[in-house]
Amino acid sequence: MRSILEASSSYRRLGSRRVYVRKGAEKSLAGLSKLIFDCDGVLASDVESYRENVRRVVDYYFLKLLGLEGRRRRLVTHPDIQRFKDTGLFNNDWNLSYALITYYLALLIRVLQMKNLLDEFADKFWGASFSGLEAFTETLGSVGSWVRQRGIGIETLVKMRNQSGFSLKSMLDLSLLTGSTSPERILQHIVPVSSRGDIESIKRMVPYGDVAEDLLKRLFEESYLGGRLFRKLYGLNPFFRFRRGLIETESFIPKRSTLNSLKSRFGKFAVYSERPRNQGLYLLDREGVRSYFDDEALVFFEDMLGLLGLSSPVGEDVPVGKPNPEPFILLARKFVGSADATYVGDTVSDAMLVENARLKGLANILFIGLLGPLGGSKELLETYINCDAEAIIESVNDIPYLMKRLED
Q1: Tell me, what's the pLDDT at 2?
Q2: pLDDT in tens, 201-228
Q3: Which of 91, 213, 301, 312 has the most CB atoms in a 10 Å sphere around its CB?
Q4: What CATH number should be reported for the domain holding residue 19?
Q5: DSSP string spanning 37-55?
Q6: 86 and 198, same domain (yes or no)
Q7: Within this chain, do residues 203 and 318 fall inside the same structural domain, yes or no?
Q8: Is 226 in the same domain as 291?
Q9: What is the DSSP secondary structure assignment for residue 313, as one 8-state letter?
Q10: Distance between CA 303 and CA 310 in Å, rounded?
């Protein structure tokens, strides 16, 4: 990663740290008045929480709910997740989990077709409907039992995934081509052409979005929060009964010295994140850092909906979050006004968010891109450069160093 930046004529390195500034952006950075932070990967380390939870949810669906035979962690890897993130389309981890589950269900349908079992399967199961968690999970168990009896398991799906025409890469290429995360658009190359409505049937097997009981979000949230915290935040008794939530593995990234230094210079901070609001506030309260943030400038997923005038997302392909700039522009105008501010993010969608906001006329917002301790992917770094990030740094804890070096 260093060689790409250091070979670039557009950026210069400040001192010994991995802190890079776009040439010509020094004055704008030095004149910043406000900071707006993303949450996951910026304030909270999410590799072993949100990203690991995506893997956990996909495994649970196929190994526990369907009951297929196989080993954990075979269907999704962390590099797989990074590839999805690098498209800029899958910043929301509910959408990402849904995309992965429907992808593997599409592979299952393809396997059944190749084994001349699809007609029998469709006749038996395509009429199933979602009628509550308990009844529906029993239906999924029946589906999995039927599939398992025909010798199809996790390794069957992995083998199919490794065929070029059905690979994750082919799915991502089609997502980029269509600019969509919708199964109707990105699974057509996998699911056999038929009159049965296979893709709609796949969607019914993993209810998500504008449905009365959302299996996907319920599973994701219970897994991420654990039973005790899920009950506290949602007021519901857990159904899946995960003992330990992955939220407890999260560490808070900014040091207290960083927060004190930045607050003395910029005042209270804003947050713009697709994390659910109750979880974002839980993190800030748990760490005892809520006082560093402006309560009127904490925008989480539900707040994005409110800024767009929506009460709930109407489906899995609604452009509510990043890189849709509309809610972000409203936050910036309220929190920043005409002063210069920067958004601090760590993903392709973060960089695209600021770029889209600039195209909509928000000229006073800069972007600082984080590489993370592993240096980020080539695609991430190239996006930062192509989107003219004013600065590229390793961690949020490098911002005080960045500001000091700009003054030297």
Answers
A1: 53
A2: 999 999 988 666 799 999 999 999 999 9
A3: 91
A4: 3.40.50.1000
A5: E-SBTTTB--TTTHHHHHH
A6: yes
A7: no
A8: no
A9: -
A10: 9
Q: Could you tell me if 107 and 85 lie in one domain?
A: yes
Count the helix, strand and coil residues of the chain and give each as a percent rounded to the nearest 5.
50, 10, 40
Nearest to 302 by CA among 317, 288, 312: 312
Written as six digits, the tokens of 116 are: 């001349």
Contact 58, 97 (CB under 8 A): yes
Decide which of 201, 234, 267 is a domain's last residue.
234
pLDDT score of 3 more than 90: no
Other beta carbons less than 10 A from residue 14's beta carbon? 20
For the record, the structure tokens of 200 come out as: 């709609």
Residue 329, classed as helix, strand or coil, is: helix
* Assigned domain for 240 exists: no
Domain coverage including residue 225: 50-234
- CB-neighbour burial class of residue 298 (10 A; exposed 0-12, middle 13-18, buried 19+): buried
pTM: 0.92
User: Do residues 137 and 206 touch, judged by C-beta distance below 8 A?
Assistant: no
Sheet holding 269-272, edge to edge: 11-13, 19-22, 391-393, 365-370, 341-345, 34-37, 269-272, 293-299
The residue written with tokens 């767009």 in the block is 308
Q: Tell which residue, 278, 321, 367, has the closest CA to residue 89.
A: 321
**What's the angle, vertex CA 316, arms to CA 241 and CA 333, rounded to 5?**
105
* Residue 34: closest CA among 384, 380, 334, 391: 334
- Work out how many domains the chain is built from and give that number: 2
Q: Is residue 241 part of a domain?
A: no
**204 and 69 in one domain?**
yes
Is residue 129 packed enough to be buried (19+ CB in 10 Å), middle (13-18) or exposed (0-12)?
A: exposed
Whether residues 288 and 371 share a domain: the answer is: yes
Q: How far is CA 305 from CA 136, 150, 353, 400, in A?
A: 29, 44, 16, 33
Backbone angles phi, psi at 41, to 5 degrees: 85, -15
Instruction: Tell me how far apart the alpha carbons of residues 260 and 265 are, in angstroms, rounded to a whole number.
Output: 9
Which residue in 329, 343, 260, 334 sits closest to 297, CA to CA? 334
pLDDT digits (tens, 9 = 90+) for 343-382: 999 999 999 999 999 999 999 999 999 998 777 788 899 9
Non-local (6+) Cβ contacts of 364 within 8 A are 332, 336, 338, 339, 340, 341
Q: Return all residues near 203 (Cβ < 8 A) that are at least 6 apart.
A: 102, 183
CA distance 313 to 210: 7
